[in-house]
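quick one before i forget lol
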Amino acid sequence: MKFWSKLIAGVMLLGLLGVFFLWRFILGATAVPKELEDPILLIPAEANFNQVVDSLKSKGCIPREQLFTTLADYMKYPRMPMRSGRFALDPGMGYIELIRHLRNGPQAPVKVILTNERLPENIAGKAARYLEADSISIFQTMSDPEVLRSLGVTKESLISLFIPNTYELYWNTSPKEFLLRMQREQEKFWTAKDRQAKADKLGLDRNEVYTLASIVEKETLRNEEKTRMAGVYLNRLRIGMLLQADPTAVFATRDFDTPRVTDYHTLFDSPYNTYKYAGLPPGPISMASISSIDAVLNAEKHDYLFFCAVGDGTGFHNFAKTLSQHNQNAARYRANLRKRGLR
């Protein structure tokens, strides 16, 4: 009896030791190499377990594939829908830790950088660089009348939804979710720094402020003179004078590569051409920078109605209150171009 008791105890001990060493083997096995070059794993929507395995293998992960699939099956991972997203893999991560991370771990966000894009399709193309959705699906969503209605914008005012900035989003953010996030960011922007109150004081809505800011954006690269230039356009609006903004004529013709504005541009029949139609165009002619939006909201109060580039290569403009003063500034501009051998 004693013999059998000792034998059973010995077998149980060996079994426990076997389980112990197996568990140590599993815990000690490295699923993610410590020298991993690219730690980001992308799992697209509707991917299956086998595709996830293939993606991991292509990155040099899970060298013991059978161990991974066995543990994954034990943890019921293959029987659930795969989570799509962008996941950062920690070098040296073990198999169980990896499976838990893919099942329940946080996604690694992407930084979506939106700068001064000109057209909705340009914004869609830029967003598609960072998100799973392609530019076509993003642009189609941006063009959907129902989506636009739900966002409170029109196809003409859509651009005003986008405030140039860097935004953290998840890679698998859908086109609609992307637009909803932009709407929330726009709301935060306008409620900050009394921007909405300043727009109300000017008698302009958000789209009108943004539209004027987009004109200022294309007229000058010098932040120092944006408030003065915004004041010129506001003065013209107040007295019903044509804005005669060159960038609106260029936008109307979509002749964005033109080196100079000609009669073709200024005579082109379009509601965006402020040489032909009074008031602001129907919507922005590009994204407007925050500095340009704030320049409109904090426009300089003055009596200037005209401005003309100095022409000396600095990018600055001379401002005038009368047409005769403006003509003198235009003559200086031409003279400066001749001095620089540009005319």
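fyi Residues 110-191 form one domain.
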